[in-house]
Design brief:
InterPro entries: DUF58, vWFA_dom_sf. The protein has about 290 residues and is α/β, with parallel strands linked by helices. The chain has helices at about 1-5, 10-15, 60-65, 100-115, 145-150, 160-165, 190-200, 210-215, 240-260, 275-285; strands spanning about 15-20, 30-50, 70-80, 80-90, 120-130, 130-135, 140, 175-180, 200-210, 220-225, 230-235, 265-270, 290.
Length: about 290
C-alpha cells in the first residue's frame, strides 16, 4: 500500500502541511502547539509577581529596575494536540469503480502522516458492525510504518452502526475527531456530532462518495441490491428518477453539513476518483483545517 499511495514528491508535499487547530490546549504532553498552560517555551505570554520558590532565572530584572518589585516572565507552553480518526469499514464503503475503501485508506494514512509529522498524538479507530477497534495510540514519525501495517489488514464488510459505535469511545481529552464515512446509516448523524461536541472535540466530517453515487448513469430497468442488508429494489431508470435522486443526495449532504457546522465543525465532500493531492491541497485547505507551513 505504501508504494501505491506515496512517492518521494508527495512525501515532500505532506511535510509542508499542518492541521489548523482552533482550540486552546491546556492538557497533553509537550508538543508543537500553543496551549493555555504557562510554561517555558520561546513565546512570551505575560508577567506575574515573584513568589517564593519560583525559578530565579525567570526574573525580569529590567522590570525590577522600573518597579522595584520582582516579576517573572510567563511563556506560552507548547502542547501536542490529540487526533482521533474514525474510519467507517462497512461494506457500502467498498463500492465504486474507484473504490471508496481504497480512498478511505489513503486518506487515513495521509492524514495520520501529517498528524505524526507535526508532533501530535494519534489514535486511529476502525468501525465495523457495532465494534470499534483502536490502533494503539501513537506519536512521532517513526510510528507511521506500524500504522501502515495495521491499515493493510483492514477489510470492509458488514454494517456499521456509526453513531452508536463512535459513542463507545470515551474521549477523555480535548482534541480533534475526524470521521471518514459515506454516512449511509439510519442513525441520526446529529447525535454523533452532539456527543463529540460534548467531549470538547473539533469535528471534521469527511463525506466520501463514489463517482457512481454522485453522478449515476443507468438505463432502463435495474435491480439495486443493498450491499449491507441485501435488500433488493427493482427500478425503471428515467431522467426524472435521476433528477429526483440527485436532489435527494444534495439535500442529504446539505443536512449533514448543517449539523456539523451547527457545532462549529467542518464538512468536506470527497469523491473517490479525485486525486489524493487535490483532496489534501485544495479541498481540505479550502475548508480551513489544513494549511502549508
Amino acid at each position: 500500500m505504501e508504494e501505491k499511495i506515496f512517492d518521494q514528491d508527495f512525501f515532500a508535499k505532506l511535510n509542508k502541511l499542518n492541521f489548523l487547530v482552533k482550540m486552546s490546549l491546556s492538557q497533553g504532553a509537550n508538543g508543537g502547539r500553543k496551549s493555555t498552560a504557562k510554561g517555558t517555551s520561546v513565546e512570551f505570554s505575560d508577567y506575574r509577581e515573584y513568589i517564593q520558590g519560583d525559578d530565579f532565572r525567570r526574573i525580569d530584572w529590567n522590570a525590577y529596575g522600573r518597579f522595584e518589585k520582582l516579576f517573572i516572565k510567563l511563556f506560552m507552553e507548547e502542547r501536542e494536540a490529540v487526533f482521533n480518526i474514525f474510519l467507517d469499514c462497512s461494506k457500502s464503503m467498498d463500492f465504486g469503480e474507484e473504490k471508496k475503501s481504497k480512498k478511505a485508506l489513503q486518506l487515513s494514512a495521509a492524514l495520520s502522516y501529517i498528524v505524526l509529522n507535526n508532533m501530535d498524538k494519534l489514535q486511529l479507530h476502525t468501525l465495523q458492525d457495532n465494534r470499534i477497534h483502536t490502533l494503539q495510540g501513537i506519536s512521532g514519525k517513526a510510528s507511521f510504518q506500524k500504522l501502515l501495517q495495521g491499515l493493510t489488514k483492514v477489510d470492509f464488510k458488514g454494517q456499521t452502526h456509526l453513531v452508536d459505535t463512535i459513542k463507545q469511545k470515551n474521549l477523555k481529552q480535548r482534541g480533534v475527531s475526524i470521521i471518514i464515512s459515506d454516512f449511509f446509516t439510519k442513525e441520526k448523524i446529529e447525535e454523533m456530532v452532539q456527543y463529540l461536541g460534548y467531549k470538547k472535540q473539533e469535528i471534521i466530517l469527511i463525506h466520501l462518495l463514489s463517482r457512481e453515487e454522485v453522478a449515476p448513469y443507468f438505463e432502463k430497468m435495474v435491480n439495486l441490491i443493498d450491499s449491507e442488508t441485501q435488500e433488493a429494489l427493482k427500478l425503471t431508470i428515467t431522467p426524472k428518477v435521476i433528477k429526483t435522486y440527485q436532489e435527494t443526495l444534495t439535500a442529504f449532504c446539505q443536512e449533514i453539513e448543517e449539523k456539523v457546522v451547527k457545532y462549529n465543525g467542518a464538512y468536506v465532500k470527497v469523491v473517490s476518483d479525485e486525486s489524493l493531492e487535490k483532496i489534501l491541497l485544495k479541498s481540505f485547505s479550502a475548508k480551513g483545517f489544513i494549511n502549508k507551513v
